[in-house]
Queue: 4 jobs
Job 1
Amino acid sequence: VPVTPIREDQVAAHDDGSFEAFVAARGAALLRTARLLCRQPEDAEDVCQAALERAYRHWGRVQQENPEPYVRRILVNLVINRARRAKLLTFVSLPPGGVEPAAERPHHGGRSGVELRGELINGLRALPPRQRAVLVLRYWEDMSEAQAADVLGCSVGTVKAQASRGLARLRELVDADLARRG
Amino acid sequence: MGDMEGALRGAMADEVADVSLPAGFAGQVRARHRRHRRIRVSATLASVVALVVAVPLATTTVLRDTAGPPPADAPAVDEVDGVVVTYLPDGLVRDPVDGFDYGGPSFADRQGDGWTDRLIEGTGLSDVRWTARTARWHPDRPDNHRVFGYQHGVRVTVFRGDGVEDLPALAESIPGNRTAEPEELDGRLVFRSDIVFAGEWIDVLWPVADGVTLRVRVSDDLEDELERVLDGLDVTGPGEGFLIDAAQEAPPGDGGFCTPASNRPLTSAGQVLGDEWDHFGGVTVGQLPAGLLGGFDHAMPVSGLNDFGGPTVDHGAPDHWQYAYVYRFADTDEEALRVTVACGSDFPRDAEQLGLFLQLRWSGEPQPHQLAGGRPAYVSDRHEDLPGRQLGWLERPGVALEVSVSEELVGQLDEIVDSIQLREPDAAAEDAAAEDAAAACPLPEVRPAALPWLAEGEPLPEPAPLPFLYADEPGAGLVWASDPDREWFDVPYVSISRVQEPDREPGVQFDPTYEVRGHPAEAVWVGDPGNSPIHVSWREQPGQCGVYRLSVNSRGVAPMLGEQWAEGGRCEAGEDPVDEDCFEEFQQAFHSELLRILDSLAS
């Protein structure tokens, strides 16, 4: 079996020119996806930079392939892992004096009467991170269920279930909003 | 739901319409990279040296050009597990890493990892037991790589085992994705698949000898070559397939070392020390590099080897358990070290099985390695979520340890590994520790007057001593369980304890929003909200043991709250109250119940 030495460009750590070109070409798209994936929109730039930085560490190897799926996968997993870590130990604000009845509570940020699209985005951000990721991958990135499952490292069945539940949850929000408006 | 999908697409488009890449974004990423490198410059230099030394040479077989059908005595161009390959299409190279897999009664219910291109998703148990080795030849193109899944090429899989001649049964024992029912043609099982990212493939399975079945798959662009590849295969040798000894393969769920007695997921380090987990004493990292923070991260049941390494598992019986300890750089919060203990009563049991286990688990080829004292181990560079190096060894039959370090710590990997010890479960020591803890603080004198499962005015039952407290917070506590005759973990419970310090985590904002008995209190979910306890801590007295902590397990209380929701019409009747869809409502209801308990506290 002949041995083929690994090419120098395969181990070269960084190629700033091609990295700049990749970020210029696809950075905005990745940032938009990050904006939709993150619960807090202001986290998008940071998580996008973190994903790109991880790819940059191995750019010599990553750039040999199409880097975008690789970076997108890092991005999705970073968002989910950060959410999971944040949830592991979360200080809770207890409403003093008890809890408002459900009907009186502000509906997702108290934005009753806002535009439908704003309501949907609020609802999207309120979903659990993996469910949110499924909806973003399916309906923003236009991935198939199998593609989304591949990115998330789960089964197609899980993607189907999460997408269905996520959409159902958003439907509830919209219906409730319409009902409130009369 | 179609309208909703369209509306969501529109909403998302609006949401990101004004998002543009800030100027100098790529430069900021590179600066971020340099910043992290500067922080750990000395360690990085060491790791770069180690990395360069350790880069394995890619061994690729460049196949010869072949024209026309292979002659009967055609020379071998390659071989996989005793099967000679005499014809392959032009221009393909062999992946240096073969795929390994195995199937059997205990392992049928698992998710695929792409190694053997599983056939179906979800399956019943099968009596067929097999192992498989897959060789993959692929065009050497940038868009066709193992990391992303090959979309073009040829693969030959050799199945060996009992009953593999029964093709439908074999197919049923290979979980995975399949887009069409296979057809039987002339004793062969033929099917096509069209999977996004994996491309379109044509598969053929057929038995070639007792206990040997071959599978050939070609990408659709090579369909014209399929027959020639099939005709060019020749089974000449016994191969190297191995079978897991049936006697060693314990029934699913059978207990073994560090297999917990129940299936309840672990969510905090303290719970590992509880008597429920007395099969697992934990892990000690004796030589923890300076500047790292962390410890126990999670434990979870996993139903098959391919689940290891993933953070989420949502199916299957717990044949195996995984315990993970994660340490991060304190200054950057980047992951630096991960120690994983993988336990199964049945696998892996020896070095050979460990090698296969790590082939399944790692993306890089495991290289033989020796630990101090000569114990066999495997090592591989790691490229994905924690770039650096990983090392695995079998601590004892059924207990595999894996240590992964970031690039900065590669030079210290052996030293770290040598310092790792499994703590033996020691019930006597735990009892003594519990007694010491109890002695360290007196029992709390504060009692709740309201409990979730008691009607208003119903007398408070007698409490029991809290079975354990967190190891680093010696104290004493009492627990009220709704059914004291059952294991109190699994039923609704409320506990009050006296501890030395409240729960605190660096970097987490303290948000005092409530008063308990005139004192500011802080509330914290420990673990996954909805599944694990919420603690409310407040300082009742100055000095040690002056901190009181009320704990309520949301998992136990949830069913009661769920019934209330259903009656109140806020959630659909019968819906799991910890279901994510109802989580917000659950949280509110749970807080309400918690406040009722807090308000009832009396001396």
Job 2
Amino acid sequence: MARQILEAIADGILGGGVYALMAAGLTLIFGVLDIINIAQGILVVLGAYLSYVLSVHLHIDLFVGLLITIPVMFVLGVAIQVLFIRPLRGSERTSMTLLACYAVALVIEGILYGTFGPDYVTLNAWYTQPNASVKVFGFYIGDIYLFGFGLALVAVLALYLLLYRTTFGRAVRATMQDAVAARLVGIEVNRVAALTFGVGVAVTAVGGMMYGATSGGFSPNSGYDLISRLLAIIILGGLGSVGGAMVAAIFMTTAEALVDIWQPNWAVAVFYLVLALVLIIRPAGLFGRRAVRAQ
Amino acid sequence: MIGDARRSAAASPPDEANPDDHGPDPAASRERLAKLAGLVALIIVVVIFPLVFSNATITEIAVQTIIFVAAASAWNLFSGYTGYLSLGHAVFFGAGAYAVGIAARDWNVTGAAVFALLPAAGLIAALIAVPLGLVALRVRRHTFVVITIAFFFIAQLTATNLAITGGSSGLLGPVPDWSANIFNDPFYYAGLIIAAGAVLLSFVIRRSRFGLQLRAIRDDEDRAVGLGVHAMPVKLTAFTISAFITGMAGGLWFFFLGQAFPQFVFDPLFDLAIALMAFFGGLGTVAGPVLGAAVLEPSQLYLTLKLTNDYLSEILLGVLFLVIILFLPRGVLPTAGEIISAQRAKRQRRSAGE
């Protein structure tokens, strides 16, 4: 039993890295644009399918393929922001942007159904095989989990450097703090918003590849499962807090892996139960800066 | 900002005249008469509709449309009036469906008696809404939306994993015992009663003190609280009423289609569809969701019949939503009302100039 628990914790932490990355993109978009990108779940699935196409049809390694899929997803994110999010203004903006993202998600899901059909597919490479694993302290850990966790760490570090060590990052953080003031000091808020949306969506390329390689199969329908988890993570972490999202992601996946030992059917429910409990005690989430913004 | 809030609270949508406005203006009273005549004509049309168009395909579409009129009105009664966007109303729809299904199965209710279960289905949905509302209504805006989505997934997961709901294979509905050639009519009239109740309730609430409190919360909750609105009970009441109607609609939907399984009654597209209907017609108006449901549901059913591809109708729903949000963000009715009153003002200016 102790061994199972230790394994579950290891799985949770290694798997949590990828969720942390996807959730970081989502919460970053919220922080800067004040919208929740409901389409993040299906975008992850789209990222997975892009990796699938590259690896099956063009025989490009999954990790190398990211060099193509990341820029593609970035451009797609910028396009979504410019076409569907930027024009929305006025008092109903919150609802409008949410529904616009939902509509974008529907369109992408429909296109994926039309292109790939409803069947589950998986991403395969030599490091996703069950016997490709390394022994750490007597536990076998799949290569893909190690590689993926390493990649997630690199990506999170890159995101951190982008936010805290570049001029663009300063502009992003300034916009997060106060969009009006940022505009006053000469930051092109619209450009920052579009690029942030692009960055937030670009991480789904990495997330999608890892999800496709580790989840045991995905279909166009997988977006709902993903987005529900991601939403729970960013609320738990506190909307707009990138660090909070990362902690919450690892906490949630570990909790899920632990419950999975005894109650596999209800493991996913952990996400929502933790969420409900936290909200009853602390509506702002664990690391929330403010529960409610003035309207 | 202050001016904004006051203006939007004071401005009533153009489809409803101000009740205090009993001026001697003959044009206004003529207009009111015309509206009344239109309403009576509409009632006559919807009542005799299945008798005139008795084709089974058409009445089937009519039944589903009328159920969506009820559901969209119920959604608007909460989300449209308060500005709290709920994307979890499928929870209540599904709860109503399962309530009818479980009651009919366990107590052997068949035939027309099943209709008597619908209020109980609404009650179950309302009972579920109270604790959900107590948790979710503590937070606002995005967080509220996300919580309602989370409730939706919990409900789906619960229905899949419990024995009482039949797990992932779901439930079969009670079999109707009336003759096949009027098969759809009882469903239609049951739906009509629920829908009429929802619309009437929307109308009454909108003009009541309660409705004013709801809209004050939508415009600025902090200020409404400062002015003495007890926000939590007011929001919770609207949420519960909305859930009650949605639950009845869900129960009827289940009885009509004869089956329920988790992915089908707890459908994320349901939440999006009713929101789209309300947005299309005009969020927060009484007639908006009715118009939205009456236009969108038949079109979607028709397209699904024609295209026979689920994914195409999914893409179309998404594209339609984007088009409406981008080009008609305030809905058909408010936009049409603006155009009419702008033209009327122009005419008046012209006649004053003569």
Job 3
Amino acid sequence: MMKSMTREKWRIVLQVLLGLLLLWAAVSKIAKPIDFLGSVYAYELPLPRPLLRFVAVFLPWTELICGLLLISGVALDAALLLVTSLFVMFVAATAQAWARGLAISCGCFDLEIFGLGKRFPELITFLESVGFAFFRNLILTGLAFFLLRRSLEPSGDIPIAAALPPGLPSQQPKRAKWSSGRR
Amino acid sequence: VLPPNMTTVKTTNDAGKAERLRLFRYEVLLQIQVVLALSVALGFAFNAANPIGVRFAPQDGSPPAQTSTLQAASSVTPASNPAIMPTASSPPLAAVTPLAPNPTGKIPHISWAQVKPLLEAKKIILVDARPKVNYDHGHIPGAVNLPYSPNPKFSSTAEDFAAFESQYPKETPVAVYCTSITCQLSLIIAEKLVELGYTNVRKMNEGYLEYSEGLSESEKSSYNHSAAPQPTLTPPQSTSAPLAAAQPMLRNPARTSWSVVKPLLQAGKIVLVDVRQEPTYDLGHVPGAVNLSYTSQEDAFIEFQRKYPKDTHLVLYCTDVGCPLSMKMAEILVEKYGYLNVQHMTEGYAEVQRDELVAKNAPQ
């Protein structure tokens, strides 16, 4: 019982941290739309530029809304699904840029806001590099996926567990819950 | 008794699960759609209201004349206008055919060679669209000054146009000119006149340059300063031309001049940016200048930003003092793209050409 409580606390802490990170990313992009569009172009994705403009206009706002939802805990499943798919896209984009050796900044976060840029320019260059961004995005994708599974499981008798074929061990605790509820 | 019971419970249980799963999926999908729709709506609403937002339409804040000027200049060749009688040699005044009206609303080109006899026969009204300073400094004799400037202080007011309208009926043939082929002001004024209902408006694409180049030195001095302009609306003032002097970099963007810029350019300390359109740039530009046209799409700006960091010292130039684009562009580069050190050469390419000319003539 205690163990599940601490796990729950950790889940909430991670969820809020992820939400704050998304808010930071979103605000950096919304504040400098042209810079963000420039970084999107810099990835040299084989996509038409009008589409990239469209994405550059709404994507930061998706991040913003998802961040708010994660912090507030509203519509968590939808937010986490979106965030996970966003990060999967980011991983793919940074991976291809890194693999092709594009010397671009990832355009993920505005690191200038802490005034670090003047004092540690090399650090900023490293943090902004796509190689670092790739690994960071991998970790964040893992985190988002973990939270997604956590969020889906506790009320497991409804979504994912029910989707599993019968007889899997994950159905066991749920059945116990049901029986206790009928008693 | 029990086993059948269990089975029925189990089946209803499964059906309930399937139903709830369906509902869950529906709910989450709906939420995802709402989040996406909301972000698209907010994103576009914010972007539309944001002065430094992403531009989707070709041009938002640029003067309407920009692209059409080039088309007008390139598509209308002097020979392609049958309405105007070719007047290479000056015919007797009485024989000068008046211009046929152009009801299409388009503004055809007319050359100085065509205007000259008409002007002498008083069958055309010449309008000088350059700022008053330039007009006072020298204009085609008989031309009326109707200046256009992005700064309303120097632009013709509604009263100026009303005075023009009261003096000249709508079917009067009008030819508008400004400095040279790259100057945008004459089209703006010509379009304004068409808008006011003038049915016979033409544009001297080559502008004042075409006229002044055809003058001998003695003619120039007599025309420019002694000949009194006949139908001017605004009496010429005797104030000295407030030409822009080079200022220290207290402001961003700031003004500058070629004498300041030249050594810096040779030392490689600045990036010189030509804001005229690409065909004009290709015709001739300051060596080492890069082209970033005022009519550039956002992509060109983004490419530019990737090449030149925000602290690059940029110096912008346009055609001459009558061209407001270098100033506007400097403002855009500072306000929208965050460049920290932008200057514009107020007198533009004309100043550079003058300098080259002086240098060429100096040894003799």
Job 4
Amino acid sequence: VTRATALALLLLLAGCGSETALWLRVEAPLVVPTACDSIDVDVARADGTAAFGQSYDLTQGPQFPLTLSLVAQTNADVSVPLTVTVAALKAGALVKPWATKSAQVTLSGGQLTPLTIQLCECP
Amino acid sequence: VTAGSLLVLALLRGAADPDLAAAEAAYDEAHYEEVLPAVRRALQHLLTGADKKRAFELEAFTQAAFDERNASVEAFRQVLGLDPAYEPDASAGPKVRAYWEHARRLGPLGRPPPPPPPPPPARAVQDVPRQTPVMTGIRDTRATLGLSQTPGERAHDEPLYQRWYFWAGAGAAAVAAAVVVGVAVMNKPQAPAGNLGTGALK
């Protein structure tokens, strides 16, 4: 009885594990909304399929750095490389040539994986 | 047949009881339907052993005359109880002799029962489990309460699922599991919302 109870508790705890998510932070030397009024965020899998795509209106803020958490709903996006692309826009166009960047990240199960993308004219 | 003649007949035959004399007379005259009532009356008197034997003998003969086999055999067994060496007269018919033979095989009636067999020898002292006065008192109390076992003995015989502490433990485990699950769900690490909010990979 004790062993069975312990096993049941372990299974329950395993099923109730923490979320798998990406913690995205976007840094840019841009003032919202005069220099940038929106930002696009896209996440693509290795096979090219889109895992996420969203445009955020920044006319009401917030200012950089922008942060966003993306939660993995299935295990399909866990432990596989994902490509994250962000683009800072003004009136629907890139504010600067360097205002877009991609980075790869691999999510770990049950963990919050941070990813910081810097949009700048830096090398 | 008058009472006086019966008494004379009884005296002549050596029978002291008038009812037995009447039974003899009725039998001799083949008035068999009168024999048995007279025999039964005579048997209610205090008869000598010989008269009693004769009364049962007359009953046996008369029952045989009526083809009452079982009753005749029982009467013969009474006779054999009084005289184990009894044997019907040679003039008795084959039916009577057959009933007598059967009665002899069954054995006599009316004999005192054999003495009871002696009790088995007492067990050796070392074989008798020792009982302290306390144990005897406990057993007496249990008998008064209608208990055949002590609570400890009953608990030992009951299966696990019928013991109170099994269900108490199961209930406690269920409550603990519910608490752990509840706490785990409530404390489930949630991804923090950024200033752009939270999205979902699909």
